Amino acid sequence: MTLFNQVIALAVLCAPVFAALPVVHAKDEAALLKSGDKTLAANKKLVYDFYRIVLRARRLDQAEHYMRVDYIQHNPNADTGIAGFKAYFEKLGGPLPIKDTLGDLVSIQAEGDMVTLSLVREYDEPGAAGKKYTSTWFDMFRIQDGKIAEHWDNATKPVPAAK
């Protein structure tokens, strides 16, 4: 076997080792809420509960408890303001059961007035019907006076359906 063939064989055998690993959720979400800084811990808890209760369980009647009325939205699919937020999520149906955990949470980062959630997101594998892969979704929030004031995520506008 030539050196070239040996290198090719080694590359083929090692390919799975270098492949992207699936994104996995945190085993202990409660630990992610902790911080030595009381304000950062409170901001993390605010965003975590908002995500569980208002977003996931679609309890839009509780939005004012977590969000400022003048909430700023940077997702291109929803209007800014709490009314725009509610209008977008009302289209998705609900309410749903409130779960104790998110289940797909990877991490929570908090610094200053910002909190970022990283979550597992599963997608269809292009060109491989029935196969899936994972990536990471990010939601970032700015907290002002104990409420969510602003939101960013990596959402894009949907592609219009073919006619």
Name the descriptors.
single chain, alpha+beta, Nuclear Transport Factor 2, Chain: A, five-stranded mixed beta sheet
What structural class should be given to the helix and strand makeup? alpha+beta
What is the overall number of helices?
5
Instruction: Report strand order across the widest sheet.
Output: 1-5-4-3-2
Q: What's the end-to-end separation, in Å?
A: 56 Å
Shape: globular
Structural domains: how many: 1
**Low-confidence region ranges:** none
Note the beta-strand portion: 25-35%
H/E topology pattern? HHHHEHEEEE
Q: Give the mean pLDDT.
A: 89
* Helix coverage percent: 25-40%
The count of β-strands is 5
Most strands sheet: 5 strands, mixed
CATH architecture: Roll
Which assembly state applies to the chains in this document? Answer: single chain
CATH topology: Nuclear Transport Factor 2, Chain: A
Radius of gyration: 20 Å
Structure description:
This protein is α+β, with helices and mostly antiparallel strands and 163 residues long. It has one domain: Nuclear Transport Factor 2, Chain: A (Roll). The chain is built from five helices and five strands. It has a five-stranded mixed sheet. The longest helix is centred in the first third of the chain and has 19 residues. The protein starts with a helix and ends in a 10-residue tail after the last strand. The relative contact order is 0.17.
